[in-house]
Write a structure and sequence with these properties.
With 338 residues, this protein is an alpha/beta fold. It is built from 13 helices and eleven strands. Helix 10 links the parallel strand 5 and strand 6 (205-207). This is 1-acyl-sn-glycerol-3-phosphate acyltransferase.
Length: 338
Amino acid sequence: MCIRSSRSSALPSPGCPTGKLPAVREGVRAAVGPPAPWLTAAVRVSGVLVHTACCRWPRRLSGNGGFAMDALWMVPLLLLPLLMWGSSAFVFYFKKFFYVAWMMVLALVSIPLCILKSGGRDVENMRIIRFMVRHVKYFLGLRFEVSGWEHLQTEGPYVIISNHQSSLDVLGLMEILPDRCTMIAKKELIYAGTVGLICWLGGIVFINRKKTSDAKSVMADAAKTMLDEQIRLWVFPEGTRNQKGDLLPFKKGAFHLAVQAQVPIIPVVFSSYSNFYLRKEKQFKSGTIRLKILPKIETKGMTCNDVSSLSEKSFNLMRSVFLDMSDSVTQSNGPMRH
């Protein structure tokens, strides 16, 4: 039986499911330290609502069939603040699931908008995609610091190259994506449900990484399209995601593309995510991502014989900046873990 005093505080009896909550709360607090003020308030509200759902509703609504049991669906939702506070692995999987699911929902909403605006596949649809995606960072507790904006004011087509750490790179990409700019992505992405379809509508160029001949053919077509339609292309020259604390050697496709089209290359460096996102350790905290846009590298007058030196020059430049940014993150946020 649950007893309620003449005032507003609820006093659970030993038989009430909330009877042990104070002891549990004190034990958790002693083990992991005091929670944030917002979390304390959320837990208190959750406790009151769980008490109501478990103790009061079943008694008051017992005559209404199974309706009282239907109210218990609220319990897992109300316990969510406790799980978010006490388990880093839960936070990791919850944020990852939310990120993927929400991106699919945003893609579903964007598809008809893109079709109505452009009638089909068009790089101008990236404006809609960019607008829809930019708010996602707030849900994940991320913020961006961007430097070098002036280097993206280059007129005409160009190739943007950047390091690639995780799917979170998409948020940084959308943060600074210039007009009439799309991406080069792996062919498998086109089969990713609504996300694959919106990528296709956004004019993203898909390549088969397993077939070099096909990739070269796609790059040649992309170079022609860049010049004919005056578009920009974003490429991840590492070719795959990498969170090892350093850059992987660059593949040469992006540099062949830039040399063939005789357009400049603009390097963009993402700071290390190691201070807030660790995939193997299942950690996903709030954090700041720093983006540094570097001055353009001209390719006019270069030939295919210059591709290797161009790739090496770009790699060394970006690696140096990445390591400097990583050191800065280490000093401001504590030691990094690789």
